[in-house]
Amino acid sequence: MSILNRFEQNKELLSNQELSIFQQIWQNLSSVQDKTLGQVVDFLHISRQSFLRVAKKLDYKDSSEFLLALNQQTVFENIEDTAKASPTLLNKNIHQIINHLDQTQIKKFIQHINKSQRIFILSTGKAQDNQGEVLAAILAKQGYFVIHIYDFFEIEEIKANVRDTDMFVILTRTGTSHDLLNAVRSLNQTAADIVTITSMRSNPLSSWSNLMIFVNTQKIDGNIYELNAMFYVIFGLIDFYLNLDDPVKPLKDQQQLIRNILGDIIAKNNASLTASNRELMTNLMQKPELLFKSISEISEQLNISTTSLFRLAQSMGFNGFKEFRASIRLAMSDFKPQNSQYDNYLVLLKYFNKTVNDIMSTDFTLIHSLIFKHDKICLVYQDKYTEILADELIRTFFHTNKLMRKINGGSSADYVDSYEDTLFIFLIKNRQYEEQLIQTLSHISNKNNDAFVFSEKEIAIEGFNVSGAIFFPNVPNMIRSFADMWLIEFLFISYLY
User: Fold this and answer.
1) What is the set of domains in the chain, with CATH numbers?
2) Global pTM value
3) From CA 389, how far away is CA 384, in angstroms rounded?
4) What does the pLDDT read at residue 45?
5) SS3 (DSSP) at 144
6) Are 352 and 233 within 8 A, CB to CB?
7) Among 235, 242, 196, 226, residue whose Cα is nearest residue 94
């Protein structure tokens, strides 16, 4: 249980003086972290006994346990703001979480995976089921044998055949579900490896798990909603380190891959590239083997100055040529692992942070007005992944008065024309479903209906009765799930505020 949860449950037990001490501790959290107990009480000008009384009333067994919890806590603004976050504060806190991710946990998780022959994913609740689907896809892509378990009753049957090379990944928000506890207690009696991914540091599963991965989330308006996108940051890091640490994967034509990536970059930055920069990029495409040589070698081979390489990178929004090169390595990560963990990890964090900023600056005015206008909202998905996005939209708006439902755009298109006074929200992540989108759009009548599309930029929606569109962020694969989930969540958060 987090410090704030303990505070909310036990604050009535604290005297006015103890409340003041807790506020003092919380407001100086960054200053008291990584200090000894003696240093903390001296800094706060309180006695050890006062610190212990606060710890005990927050249900910690002693001062050391409370001090450990304080050291593990990400620094936020203050207790009132974390309970009811404003978008500005939320932005700051999310960057804080992303920039202080615990890589050690992820690397340990990779070690557990590499020792496993079979991986079972056990999840609780719809949000965790969706997380399990994405994590299973990441692991399956790497060639791991993955089974996603949806029914706790399957555990007893599986238990009889569990091997010591099996691994169970438990996805849970709080780890307090009675059925889940019974299932994990039963698994704990086997030789299987148990890893729990949770947003609550201290929960009943900790003593039965070989590894606990903490996902630092944040609640909106108290308990109305908890940020789910933070789980997908962790999955992005898992994907990153799996690609990084695996043996080199076979690649038919690595140079062609680099050409494709460079060609894509040219297309996306065409308007900002000067003629000389466009020529330089073309030369790099013709000699892709040069790209990862030293900057001096590149300048010598292409007969240009190192300053030209720096200016080329700047014209595409990078701080320098090394950062530009690291972004290409990141784009290649599904095919070939990288040796430079540090450089690539920083680029990965940059993408996470840039995605947060880009989405928080997105203009949701039109979609907000349409949601406000309609009490009935129909989410149209096309495949398993966009169904997960639809589920998340339904979950985010659960506490509103909106009647939300989802349909498959391919199999249910004929039913669309019977709806009235409905907002249709289309979720498209793949061009192959563009024909389905057009087919479903053609069924929408003018019975006071509206249509809005979330899609990739290349999806053509001109000429159809669509009120507007928002494009999913164009990011590397490892950021994709987080970017999509954060877009969905901030659509809701900005609507709420």
Assistant:
1) 3-73 (1.10.10.10), 102-245 (3.40.50.10490), 254-336 (1.10.10.10), 362-496 (3.40.50.10490)
2) 0.66
3) 9
4) 86
5) coil
6) yes
7) 226
How many degrees, rounded to 5, is the angle at CA 91 between CA 87 and CA 97?
A: 135
Our measurement of the distance from residue 450's CA atom to the centroid of its chain's CA atoms, rounded to an integer in Å, reads 30
Kindly list the distances between the CA atom of residue 397 and the CA atoms of 193, 356, 384, 405, 495, in Å, as whole numbers in the listed order.
37, 20, 20, 11, 10
- pLDDT of 53-81, one tens digit each? 988 888 888 888 888 888 776 554 443 34
Query: 152: helix, coil or strand?
Result: coil
- Which amino acid is residue 198, in one-letter code? T
C-alpha 209/C-alpha 196 separation (Å) is 6
How far is residue 418's CA from residue 364's CA, in Å, rounded to a whole number? Answer: 28
Alpha-carbon torsion (398, 401, 402, 404), positive or negative: positive
Residues 388-401: b if buried by 16+ CB within 10 A, e if exposed: bbbbbbbbbbeeee
Sheet holding 468-471, edge to edge: 403-408, 376-381, 422-427, 450-455, 468-471
Sequence-distant (≥ 6) Cβ neighbours of residue 268 within 8 angstroms: 474
* pLDDT at res. 337: 43
CA distance 140 to 133: 10
Angle (CA) 83 87 92, round 5°: 85
Contacts of 131 (CB under 8 A, 6+ apart): 123, 171, 197, 228, 231, 232, 235
Task: Output the six-digit token pair for 283.
Answer: 């030369």
In eight-state DSSP terms, residue 141 is: H
